[in-house]
Design goal:
Blueprint lengths: L3 H11 L3 H14 L1 H14 L8 E5 L5 H7 L6 E6 L2 H13 L5 E5 L11 E7 L8 H11 E12 L26 H10 L4 E7 L2 H20 L7 H21 L7 E7 L1
Parallel strand pairs: 1-2, 1-4, 2-3, 4-5
Antiparallel strand pairs: 5-7, 6-7
């Protein structure tokens, strides 16, 4: 399934006013299990830092929801969001200017070549690396751009059924992915090869998360990919499934999983 056309359609609906855009962010925060895991890690990272200036890179910024979330934690932090898609960068710059968040800027950059030596205290990379073939080069660029002691936070599919791939003959649910998922040890080895001194990784999307993802993302996206007419039915669909997804997300983010279709990876310079 092609994910980008659906994302563009959703973006066109919710970018009409700043209020709709913020509502869209809140919906993503509630529905997307990866947001629950990322928010949990960001809260841990933010302890003791809210009153100090921090420079944060939103690598592969997309709709800008993680920059918005982090900016809500502290007005002292400064943000740079980068993405290869010009339309999303222009859209994010316009939105954050409209709401007066002047400490956030977005630029069109290619992560395989982008660096600002020893500049960032935190790099956030959510569902990006599965789209990048030259992953070790990007990890090296992150390392170059980070200050000593800075942290890199990654969310990406795992090789335990990530991208909805269960066997050798299965195709990725998202056609834009260049890899179906990372092995939990291989991605840490690649990060160490890129220069990181310490790494940690754990599985997300265990059994509760797998069910939640199908209900909250897979099935609705499949419907929207068939016809945009399903936009009319989506609110009624979520009215039924939303409470179950919330419960499943909470179970997943608070549990420990021996395996899972997603990975949360941290690395320190």
């Amino acid at each position: 399934m092609q994910y980008d056309p659906v994302k563009r359609s959703l973006g066109n609906v919710f970018k009409r006013t700043p209020s709709l855009r913020i509502l869209f962010y809140k919906m993503l925060d509630l529905l997307l299990l990866r947001s629950w895991h990322i928010h949990k890690e960001l809260k841990i990272w933010a302890k003791g830092k809210r009153d100090n200036e921090q420079h944060i890179l939103d690598a592969g910024s997309g709709f800008g929801q993680y920059s918005y979330y982090l900016n809500s934690m502290s007005s002292k932090w400064k943000f740079l969001g980068v993405d290869v898609k010009e339309e999303q960068i222009a859209d994010c710059n316009q939105f954050f200017k409209q709401i007066g968040r002047n400490n956030i800027r977005f630029q069109v950059k290619d992560l395989t070549t982008f660096t600002i030596p020893e500049h960032f205290d935190l790099v956030v990379c959510v569902d990006v690396m599965e789209h990048v073939l030259e992953d070790v080069q990007v990890f090296k660029n992150y390392h170059t751009s980070m200050k000593p002691g800075a942290m890199l936070l990654i969310s990406t599919p795992s090789d335990q059924g990530g991208s909805d791939v269960s066997g050798d003959g299965d195709a990725s649910f998202i056609e834009e992915h260049v890899r179906d998922g990372y092995n939990i040890n291989d991605i840490q080895d690649k990060l160490k090869l890129a220069g990181f001194s310490k790494t940690e990784a754990y599985y997300a999307y265990g059994n509760p998360g797998k069910i939640s993802w199908k209900l909250s993302m897979k099935y609705p996206l499949q419907m929207l990919n068939v016809s945009k007419l399903f936009f009319i039915l989506i609110p009624f669909y979520y009215l039924i499934t939303f409470p179950f997804c919330l419960i499943l997300n909470k179970m997943d983010v608070n549990g420990k999983h021996a395996t899972g279709t997603g990975l949360i990876v941290k690395a320190w310079k």
